[in-house]
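Predict the structure of N-acetyltransferase domain-containing protein.
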Amino acid sequence: MGFEEATIRSYEEQSDRAQVEDLERRCGVGPADQRVLLLTDTMGDPICRIRNSPMYKMLVAMLDKELVGVIQGSIKVVTVDRPPPKDLARVGYILGLRVAPLHRQKGIGSSLVRRLEEWFGANDVDYAYMATDKDNGASVKLFVNKFGYIKFRTPAILVNPVHNQPFRISSNVAIEKLKIEEAEFLYRRFMASVEFFPHDIDNVLRNRLTLGTWVAYPRGECFGSNHGQVPSSWAMLSVWNSGELFKLRLGKAPLSCLIYTKSSSLMDKFFPCIKLPFLPDFFHPFGFYFMYGVHREGPMSGKLVRTLCKFVHNMATKCKDCKVIVTEVAGNDTLRHHIPHWKLLSCLEDLWCMKAMKVEEKYSLHELTKSPPARSLFVDPREV
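Done. Here is the predicted structure for N-acetyltransferase domain-containing protein.
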């Protein structure tokens, strides 16, 4: 017996918002066998995760009057490692694919992906890509086996809790906040050739959600960003306040995590003079900071990255809503060893898959996916 075919159309905020939010609540983020399940709260704006992208679209699947599926996509220009002068590519990002549990295995997810790819094609997209947990068998089967996506990169998502006590910053390290123009200059000079570097980095830096860009370098050395003068060792990163867009909470976690969180919170409440660090309450919606554009140069740069992470942590302690700090780096990037993170919440092998949307790009994509992974990867905070 065949299934009734769903109607795919563009998202309409006034009529669809409530049903999309209900669907999001019923569909947890992450595979069912994952020990820690992160759920999202879009705070009344289901399209918040792509709203800051240069171009974006959300599609919904309808059966009669019931909304049974959604998918989101965005388009931008990025750096892709292919022969010049074609080192820039127009890419489409797929995220937020959800199908109601009672309506799965009916081809609804496939219809949503197909229609979103048609939108990519109509807007001259070179490559489409998506990200998923490497153990999410259903997602990998749909995109790789059915739609011909190729496994591309396995970056690491690093998550660190914000404790109640600030960290001590070494007096041997100078930390300086850059002007937007200075930050853009440095990013274009040192990261413009990094995979997936956004061509409109100036728009990212000027977005109200970017809290700033900071550099760290040995105290006593000079740093002149506009004139290209950099110290022997230095590091930089920018911070995006994702908590203003949507919230996170733990849908499930080991009992030990719950006990530790509750007990450490009680210790801080009744014995504040001890000043022990405690884990925040992850079981109610919370915001987070996303560190992007992490870059380093020189023999001391690992220590400088760690110092910047401590600086961002101390910033986050002043924000009541921010409970974790998140960043994403290339899987083989040694940066991961210098960025503090909690393994229970982190995903050390995320999976990116790509597909050529044009015939002439298929060979380039084959060469791209077969080439050794680049050391650095730029993760756009607008797509987190």
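The chain has two domains: 7-154+351-370, 159-345.
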